[in-house]
Amino acid sequence: MAVESAKSETVFPVISSAMPHDYFQLLKPRVMSLVIFTALVGMLLAPGEINWLIGFVAILCISIGAGASGALNMWYDADIDAVMARTAKRPIPLGKIDRSQALSFGVVLSFFSVMTMGVVVNWLAAALLAFTIFFYAVIYTMWLKRSTPQNIVIGGAAGAFPPMIGWAAVTGNISFESVVLFAIIFLWTPPHFWALALFRLQDYENAHVPMMPNVHGEARTRLEIFIYSLLLGIASVLPTALGFASLAYGLVAAALGGWFALLGFRVWKEGSKDNGYVREKKLFRFSIFYLFVIFAALAADALITTAVAYYG
């Protein structure tokens, strides 16, 4: 009887109901696409050549590393994600993936991407990739995000590293030019996310995340959005000023930067809850377009310059 009782109480392991799509969502595919694009532009702008297969591996490792960062972020922030409307439908809050599975997934992908980058490409690029994953998962997600309204400012460095990694993959070093590419994304991040934080203020309030408008108020946030938009406009024309992009790119960057600054000014002077955060939403949407066009213009500029030099 005892044997029969033991058999009847046997607990079988629960088989995960997660589908491949759920794991793909853990990688934050929209963020990953931006990382891949900016890293590729960094590779195109870097002086020298890289074997196409090694270049492909470099981009693959960067994309996997970005995905690993996303998975680790969702693992740690599952409690926050569950109470925010913007993130409540992510795989962990929906119960499709267990937190421990997300952690294991992120750790394995991190190790694989960094080691492959080091062995196949070079160890400087691998070190930068490892630091980027660490910065996003630990410095930003575990520390800054829940402790300071400067979380996005400092944490934005994680999203700014990919073009530097791409540059290092080709050259094996870090140059001032790659730092300029870093600076463009770094200065773009605060106005982009603070515009979002203004019209998603209640979300962050519910999750007790100390975003700038929740801590220092909407007026201070709008002013800082305008200041960062001005700094971003200056940084975006530096590639031309420093001679690694053409005058044509500089004109495009100046025009886009001027419009970004104008939108930032309007957010500062005219934005408010009373008009449904129309100005803030417009700036947020334009910021996505802006970053894509700036880096697309840099890529086109590099390809045209190479073609002219080759066929010249």
Describe the SSE topology.
Elements: H1 2-8, H2 20-26, H3 29-45, H4 52-76, H5 78-83, H6 99-121, H7 123-143, H8 151-155, H9 157-160, H10 162-171, H11 176-199, H12 201-207, H13 212-216, H14 218-236, H15 238-241, H16 247-270, H17 278-311
Helix pairs in contact: 3-4, 3-10, 3-17, 4-6, 4-7, 4-10, 6-7, 7-10, 10-11, 11-12, 11-14, 11-17, 14-16, 16-17
Write up this protein:
Helices cover 78% and strands 0% of the residues. It is an all-alpha fold and 312 residues long. The protein folds into 2 domains: 21-173, Tetracycline Repressor, domain 2 (Orthogonal Bundle), CATH 1.10.357; 175-305. α11 (176-199) packs across α12. The longest helix is centred in the C-terminal third of the chain and has 34 residues, at 278-311.
Summarize the structure.
The protein is mostly helical and 312 residues long. The protein is built from 17 helices and no strands. It folds into 2 domains: 21-173, Orthogonal Bundle (Tetracycline Repressor, domain 2); 175-305.
CATH homologous superfamily classification of the largest domain: UbiA prenyltransferase
Number of strands: 0
From the alpha-carbon coordinates, what is the Rg to the nearest angstrom? Answer: 22 Å
What is the CATH architecture assignment of the largest domain? Orthogonal Bundle
- Name of the top-level CATH class of the largest domain: Mainly Alpha
Helix and strand content put the structural class at mainly alpha
